[in-house]
Amino acid sequence: MAKQFCETCGKQTEHREWIQQKPSKYGASRKEKLKAFLDGFFSGWGGGGAAAIDLVDRYVICQACGRKTLQNYGDQFQ
């Protein structure tokens, strides 16, 4: 855990990191799930681990008040 400034608490507090998968741009049907799998397979095969970073959101959560903040900083999250 890391100490960061929390806007809700107004002070430095312990925060933990939480990674959540982004919602799929494909639908829920079987055909759309197959498209999502193939898209992920081929982008992961060619791009390695860097391709997987596009599929997740990074949040930090304040341990004092529970405030969840999206922190997708850097080129890898764009």
Set down the secondary structure blueprint.
Layout: E1 2-6, E2 11-21, H1 30-47, H2 49-52, E3 56-62, E4 68-70
Molecular structure report:
- By secondary structure, the chain is an alpha+beta fold.
- It is built from two helices and four strands.
- A four-stranded antiparallel beta sheet has the order 1-2-3-4, with no helix packed on it.
- Strand 1 and strand 2 (11-21) form a beta hairpin.
- The radius of gyration is 16 Å and the shape is elongated.
Describe the structure concisely for a colleague.
This is Pullulanase. The protein has 78 residues and is an alpha+beta fold. It has two helices and four strands.
The mean pLDDT is 82
Distance between the termini: 24 Å
- Give the number of helices: 2
Strand content bin? 25-35%
- The assigned structural class equals alpha+beta
- What letter string, H or E per element, gives the SSE order? EEHHEE
Biggest sheet details: 4 strands, antiparallel
| Overall helicity | 25-40%
Spatial sequence of strands, sheet with the most strands: 1-2-3-4
Tally of individual domains: 1
Low-confidence stretches: none
Overall 3D form: elongated
Strand tally, please?
4
Radius of gyration: 16 Å
Organism: Chromobacterium sinusclupearum
Protein name: Pullulanase
